[in-house]
Description:
The complex is a heterodimer of chains A (227) and B (281).
Chain A: E1 2-11, E2 14-23, E3 28-33, H1 39-47, E4 54-59, E5 62-63, E6 74-77, H2 89-99, H3 104-118, H4 133-145, E7 151-155, H5 163-180, E8 183-187, H6 191-197, E9 200-205, E10 208-212
Parallel strand pairs in A: 3-8, 3-9, 6-7, 7-8
Antiparallel strand pairs in A: 1-2, 1-4, 4-5, 9-10
Chain B: H1 2-28, H2 31-39, H3 41-74, H4 80-92, H5 95-107, H6 115-133, H7 149-173, H8 178-185, H9 190-201, H10 203-219, H11 222-227, H12 238-247, H13 251-276
Amino acid sequence: MIELHGITIRSGPFSLTNMVLTIPEGTYAVLMGGTGQGKTTILEAICGLRTVASGRVLLNGSDMTRWKPGDRGVGYVPQDLALFPMMTVRGHLEFALRVRHCSTAMIRDRVAELAHVLGIEPLLERRVTNLSGGESQRVALGRALSFRPRVLLLDEPLNALDEVTRDRLCELLRSIQKESGLTTLHITHSRAEARALAEKLFILEAGRLREHPLDQLNSLPAGSTET
Amino acid sequence: MPFFVVMGGLGGSFVLLIVALLAADIAFTSPKHFAAALSKPEIQHAIRLTLITCTISALLSIWVATPLGYLLSRFSFRGRWLIDTIIDIPVVLPPLVIGLSLLILFHLPIGGTNLEQQMQQLLGVLIRSWNNLIPFAKCYWKPRVTYAEPAVVLAQFSVACAFAVQTMRVTFDQIDPRAEQVAMTLGCNRSRAFLEIALPQAWRGIVAALTIAWARSLGEFGPILVFAGATRMRTEVLSTTVFLELSVGQLEAAVAVSLLMVLAAMVVLGVVRLVGTKVVR
Lengths: 227, 281
């Protein structure tokens, strides 16, 4: 469960004030809004990369407003993916588990499981610098899921992908979320993605965060979506 | 066509000047002069001391420049401009002033003592501990900084480190901090994100900074002359050899040593070009 209780975030001249959001446990929520509205800022506040000036961030009922990013148990896939260029695909999947001092056998089993689910088994020993867009997205998703996070945050994860790859990854995200029951917040501009994935839809517009009925997706302002 | 003639002519004049300088040096000397210079025990000692001190000061520079370059690249804090300015002082200051300032720093009376005496005591304790721990490899070096070997390293380090910091800062500026942030969401603390994510990506910059610091140390003369002196078989490095040989009228030996330094500099610059082209422009 993800809860934002009246959070205010300031970054230079930009600020978001009194943001309120509740995503029930196991729900796949989609956040939409125009460019520069602060969607990424909200995600960063949830995962602890941005300091919250006031208000509270609760994950599964625990107040994590002042917790360090690494202690929150948030799986985060940023827009630019930010893969580690000096590591192999296997290194990415192992990273969070090594940080947590998991046993070798446990790491091996988890990597095999993730690689199978994400369909990246043949890529495990490859460096990430020459992967395709779709492959990179899968690796970033695997890295975020590897340590079985409390919640999953996805920042435009399917951007810049061709339609076929996008549909495949949409399907993958849906099946992973269904199996793991992970509370997910997914930022997108795409109505098609929202239609395919969202159980709840939120709109960030003119500094206001509000829930929007899913069946009225087509009525959204043009600036916050693309078809 | 006139465009290339004008641009090439203007730019080429500098390249021609450097080539002419080197050609003149080569024409002036001969293998016989080289052999004679290299057979001198004083010059052999200077080569050894140069290689050792340049390597130590380059390693010290990288040890300091990596964390400093990272902090300056990643964090905005009050007074950063002041630190930036302080770091650049050795780059713009006349080298002799650095040497003079080091000399004054080590001999300025502070509470009945000075830094030189404090360092001598500290080095004395370290040497005694070494001799007690490893009696079969005793050290008989008389601890001293000013006008001794440590002064050579310190004089080289004072200038070389500034260049290393600049290189490391540019290196980290070019590395996206996003990957470190993601690593922190995966459970890393800041130190581990630096060591496991940022540092491996910075390896080209580290090699470039190391070689630049080494090359700067090789060319250092003013601060060494003032702070370490130019005592033969003691604090003489290759740059001071050129000066000493010139001062006694041994022009052939001075040119031979100069060409030796040119060769060393070219090897180092070649390494920079080969390894660090992505971060050093």
